[in-house]
Amino acid sequence: MTSAMIRIQSKRLMLILFAVALISLGVGVTAWKLTAGRQVEAIDAPLAGAKIGGPFRLIDQDGKVLSSESLKGRYRLMYFGYTYCPDICPTDVQKMSQGLRAFEAQDSKRAATVQPIMVTIDPERDTPAVMKQFVRAFHPRLIGLTGSPAQVKAALSTFAIYARRAGPPAATDYLMDHSAIMYLMGPDGEPITFFARDATPDQIAADLAKYVR
Q: Are residues 62 and 112 in the same domain?
């Protein structure tokens, strides 16, 4: 083999090594960008890492058992209230439904992964039949969850929800003191963000567009 041929082969080897280095660098940069993007999303989520949410087992408006495992893979837009609430709860559920409808109009594919849920804080009066009548007035996909007092109490504790019956213990026409908050939970049940009472449907839709992937 002549010296000229050796030099040509050496140049080819150098070019090949250089191309491999560029490809490796490109893969590394892409992976860094993807990882950095996930980190930014995690940091940006207001409730990232919060100890809110977890396993639960309740009854839906059709009388069927629904657990946290049943919802795996879906985002959950969750509100905690009661059907006998004279003003706050219906208003909040209406805003939740309007926000989801606005997101559905923007991106129906992503919106389909969001499951709206109302969990009662008043299981003694909110039977499945009562929940069914209530949720059908707001959104066709809205699920109403109730259960035994023990089941509901456990769920409320899991989601850091305050709820207490107001008025005389023997009264049947009573009100409930409770947290007025709405959560967006991720596909694995992780907390993402929350909506306070002054959140508008547009703000709810905007946050859904921001966090639902």
A: yes
Residue 2 sits in the same domain as residue 94: no
Q: Are residues 199 and 120 in the same domain?
A: yes
Q: Are 116 and 97 in contact (CB under 8 A)?
A: yes
- CA 30, 36, 39, 45 dihedral sign is negative
User: What residue spans of 45-148 are helical by DSSP H?
Assistant: 88-106, 108-111, 128-135
160 within a domain of the structure (yes/no): yes
Please give the Cα distance from 68 to 75 (Å, whole number). Answer: 11
Same domain, 71 and 36: no
- Asked if residue 52 has pLDDT above 80, the reply is yes
For residues 150 and 185, membership in a common domain is answered with yes
9: domain range?
1-44
How do strand 114-120 and strand 75-81 relate by DSSP bridges?
parallel
Task: Write down the pLDDT at residue 12.
Answer: 46
pLDDT tens digits for 100-118?
999 999 999 999 999 999 9
171-204 tens-digit pLDDT: 888 999 999 899 999 999 999 999 999 999 999 9
Amino acid identity at 155: A
